[in-house]
Amino acid sequence: MNNDAGEEPDHEIIVVVDPMCSWCWGFSPALTEMAETYQDQAPVWLMAGGLRPLTEKPMNDDAKADIRHHWQDVHNASGQPFDFSFFERNGFIYDTEPACRALVAMRMIKPEAAPHYLAAMHQAFYAQNRDITNEAILAELAADEGVDESDFIRVFSSKQTIYRTAGDFHRAHSMGVRGFPTVVLRTGEKLELLCAGFRPFDQLQPAIDQWLERATEDAPAET
To answer: Which domain holds residue 50?
Structure first.
């Protein structure tokens, strides 16, 4: 599934996310633990899902009420912090394409930093009320990951990254993903759904361990 750079691993944990999906923010601690726990056995590969890509209309009061309800549900389920002053913004366009493209750009420039960069975007948007549809803020967050801001903006703005982000959206849809986060376990060309929606890491770890154990048992013996 990894088509950005380097050799594709035999086992991979594909996590379909959107930086502006509140349930993905709720899932952020689980994703961090997953990446740290399995980085040597089955690295996490982040796919940009596209929650509301290319939205053009500003949020109205009904949209704000609906999204606020989701944020409260996520806070109650996960304990993740939210800055509800976001809903005092006027004219905000909830277009998730730029943040998704920023994730893809980081995946291309410095793939090992992608999980932490996603968490930084989540933190900035949900807990700090920063506008991660803004290129300058996305570049500033990339700089915190050791990426030169001008280099990041060059990659972020390129046609290749725009097309690759659209490719992520298409692949997620073709895999049957309709909500985020969705976690898929890949062994070679075989895909296995782990979860569709928010789950704490301790509920996912046993299934991942069993998957890796099966993969080890099914691997051909060395001669």
So the answer is: 11-218
The answer to whether position 6 is within a domain reads: no
- The CATH number given to whatever domain includes residue 151 is 3.40.30.10
The answer as to whether 1 is a domain residue is no
- Checking 58-61 for CB contacts under 8 A at 24+ apart, the result is 58/90, 58/91, 58/92, 58/93, 59/89, 59/92, 59/93, 59/94
Query: What does pTM read for this prediction?
Result: 0.92
Number of structural domains in the chain: 1
Written as tens digits, the pLDDT of the chain (223 aa) is 555 655 678 899 999 999 999 999 999 999 999 999 999 999 999 999 999 999 999 999 999 999 999 999 999 999 999 999 999 999 999 999 999 999 999 999 999 999 999 999 999 999 999 999 999 999 999 999 999 999 999 999 999 999 999 999 999 999 999 999 999 999 999 999 999 999 999 999 999 999 999 987 766 554 4
